[in-house]
C-alpha cells in the first residue's frame, strides 16, 4: 500500500449498524435482483469495452447476493473470481430460486441444472472462486494482484 493512502477505519458500532442495514436490504432484494445491477450494465454500455478480453484475477467488492460481475462474464474469459462481501455467509446458505441470480447464470453457462447453494455450485462448475467476508479496509489482497476490481454502490 502506498504510504500516501490513508484507509479510514470504521468503529465497531457503526460497522454493526451498517451490516444490519445491509442484511435487511439483502433479505428484501435477494429474490428480485433489485440492486441496480441491470442499471449499471446499461450505464456502462453493456461492458462492451471488455469484450473478448482475458483476465487472470477478478475481484468484486461488496458482491451482494447476485453480483454485478455476472453481466461482465459473457464478455470475457477469466481464471479466478474473488467475491467479497461481509454478508457472504448469508448468501452462501440462501437457496436462490430466481433464474436471474449470478449463480443460476453460472450454472446455465457452464452446466445444465438447478442451483441450490453457492459453494456447491462453484465446486461442481470447477470455477475458481475465493469467497471473503473481510471489511473493505481489511481486504487481504496484494497491490496489483487483481486485473479487474468491481465495486459499485
Topology, pairings included?
Blueprint: H1 12-29, H2 37-43, E1 53-61, H3 69-72, E2 76-84, H4 88-93, H5 102-110, H6 118-125, E3 128-132, E4 148-150
Parallel strand pairs: 1-2, 1-4, 2-3
Treating each run of at least 4 consecutive H or I residues as one helix, how many helices? 6
The CATH architecture name reads 3-Layer(aba) Sandwich
What is the ordering of alpha helices and beta strands?
HHEHEHHHEE
Strand order of the largest sheet: 3-2-1-4
CATH class: Alpha Beta
Please identify the structural class as seen in this structure.
Answer: alpha/beta
Give me the CATH fold name.
Rossmann fold
Number of strands: 4
Number of domains: 1
Amino acid at each position: 500500500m502506498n504510504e500516501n493512502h490513508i484507509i479510514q477505519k470504521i468503529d465497531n458500532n457503526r460497522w454493526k449498524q451498517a451490516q444490519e442495514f445491509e442484511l435487511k436490504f439483502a433479505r428484501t432484494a435477494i429474490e428480485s435482483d433489485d440492486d441496480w445491477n441491470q442499471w449499471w450494465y446499461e450505464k456502462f454500455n453493456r461492458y462492451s469495452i471488455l469484450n473478448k478480453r482475458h483476465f487472470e484475477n477478478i475481484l468484486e467488492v461488496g458482491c451482494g447476493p447476485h453480483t454485478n460481475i455476472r453481466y461482465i462474464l459473457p464478455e470475457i474469459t477469466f481464471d479466478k473470481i474473488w467475491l467479497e462481501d461481509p454478508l457472504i455467509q448469508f448468501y452462501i446458505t440462501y437457496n436462490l430460486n430466481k433464474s436471474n441470480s449470478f449463480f443460476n447464470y453460472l450454472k446455465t453457462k457452464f452446466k445444465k441444472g438447478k442451483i441450490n447453494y453457492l459453494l456447491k455450485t462453484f465446486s461442481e462448475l470447477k470455477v475458481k472462486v475465493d469467497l471473503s467476508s473481510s471489511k473493505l479496509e481489511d481486504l487481504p489482497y496484494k497491490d496489483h494482484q487483481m486485473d479487474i476490481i468491481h465495486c459499485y454502490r
